[in-house]
Amino acid sequence: MSIRFHHVVAFGALLSLAAGLCLAAAADDTTVYRLTDTARGSFMGHPCLELILEPPMGGRTIQVAVPNKNPTGGYDPSAVVTDVIKEVGKGGLVRLHATISGGTSVVGSFGKYDLKPGEDAPHGFVFKSSAKKAVGKEEHLVLTVSKYGQEANITIPNVKNAAGTLAPEPGMAALVDKLKPDTVIEVDAEQSGAIVIAQAIDLYVPPVSGTFEKLADTTIDGKKRPALVVTIAGESQTLPLAGRVSSDGRWIPDTKLLAAIKTLKPGAAVVVSIRERAGQKIVRDIHPTPAETK
Description:
The chain has about 290 residues and is mainly β. The chain folds into three domains: about 15-110, CATH 2.40.50; about 125-205, CATH 2.40.50; about 210-294, CATH 2.40.50. It has helices at about 10-15, 80-90, 170-180, 255-260; strands at about 30-45, 45-55, 60-65, 95-100, 105-110, 125-135, 140-145, 150-155, 160, 165-170, 185-190, 195-205, 210-220, 225-230, 235-240, 245, 250-255, 270-275, 280-290. A five-stranded antiparallel sheet has the order 3-2-1-4-5. About 30% of the residues are buried.
């Protein structure tokens, strides 16, 4: 299956950027890839440098030929390409525009992709703009965000305000109003048909290192919520888990987050993402440090 990114794409397509991406289908586009390796190949009957690339979030690798400086000469790849390879190294992100020549994918333009801090986080996106747009029968506040150079629209849900009229959810709308272009944010969202609806939006904050103590309960607004007890910078903290309120008013913790915490043993070194919502610090994500996963 081939995917082309000429314009704003759906959230699901954006997150599955890796799936089935075919360079031939994207030959007229500039696309971001991860450089996995280089090799010697052949182009127009002559030896050439070959790039081995994969989509940023993983997927099928592709091979792209680098034309030699002298098309009829020997192996002599473009210095523009080799300089970028030296700069980014294996595993680095590159921006590629390719063409098809004689049935072979060939580098047209090639450069380093400047990744913004937090953009590669699981829910990380680069804020581009916001505007009020008609979505179905209602007007909504809609964000345009990007990840690895590809764009998507995310809709802020409407809720009834004090006057009884529908308006963008005030907490998210207030945050969006303060955002400047190219700010990295984290978005929890769900897809409803062709519309992507935000459930929570946070400014990206780098994770912190800590030591896992235990999973416990804490009480907020008179209701029990599961919480992480973790030592950070020598201080023990009890932090409720991210989640959502059910239709009957119960707090439902993020299932993946809860499952990840249940695999940890007391004393494990962890990396924790903490966010503040409605004046309350919460745990958004947690995973063992690399040393703990060996």
